[in-house]
Amino acid sequence: MDTTLVIVTLVSLAIAVGLGVVVWRFYREDRRRTDARIAALTELALEPETHRHLPEPQPVERDRGFRLPPPREATADRRSFSEGGRAEEPDLPLRPSAPPAAAPATLFQEQEHASPWGARFVVMAGLGLATAAIVLFALTARNSGAAHAPAPATTTAPVPAPGLELLSLRDTRQNGTLTITGLVQNPRDGASLSRVVVTAFAFDRNGSFLASGRAPLDYTTLQPGDESPFVVTVPASENVARYRIGFRGEDGRVIAHVDRRQAATAVAENRP
Questions:
Q1: Strand partners of residue 231
Q2: Are residues 141 and 31 in the same domain?
Q3: 168 and 135 in one domain?
Q4: What is the rounded radius of gyration, in angstroms, for the C-alpha atoms of the chain?
Q5: Would you say the pTM of this structure is higher than 0.70?
Q6: 254 and 197 both lie in a single domain
Q7: What's the number of CA atoms in the CB half-sphere (13 Å) around residue 101?
Q8: Does residue 256 lie in a domain region?
Q9: 234-262 confidence digits (pLDDT tens)
Q10: How far apart are CA 200 and CA 213, in angstroms?
Q11: Boundary (domain end) residue, out of 84, 111, 145
């Protein structure tokens, strides 16, 4: 969970930094274009005005032998009639009067527009606040969940009961049978045992299994501190290189045992 929150925070910071760089580059480019446009317009406004003087238009004589009659004085209604009875319209001006020229100050004046960067910065700030709110909400939810989570129950591993102690072990081979005898003791701090069975497994030199045998202890019940001899036979004696014994309870579970034969031999030798 901590790794996920750290990754989300780092990604959010990287996105914010990347967007900030992009916005800064756009802002710088826009400022550069605006400055270049203002400089160009200022340069055009400072250039001196040049007027081209065109020659006055000359009337074209279509026929040198023909001359127009002199204009007659206009009547009260400014209309005159020709000899054929046709009404003559008053003359129109050849060139209309030119409109007043615009002042140079207003000709190259740039209209001011509101900059869009204010809205862009507002959007960027909103995105940053939303990301920070999401991260804080996730951290708060995690901390509250961890606070309300039940503490794990502490379980104590059961202490295994001490097994039997093997005090002596002998074997004899006769008529194709391996006979194993020994003596076991239930420790003083052990539990009461009943109907304990001895198992024996025989193996050859290569470690291959040959045969097995089983027999109960001589005493059916072993109280803490009690001893019991046992005898178990295995139907194999010629190729047996080694054997292994074990103990099982009345429910079939394996009972651990500790080899105390060296300690028992040392005690017997030290007795007077």
A1: 181
A2: yes
A3: no
A4: 61
A5: no
A6: yes
A7: 5
A8: yes
A9: 998 778 889 999 999 888 889 988 988 87
A10: 5
A11: 145
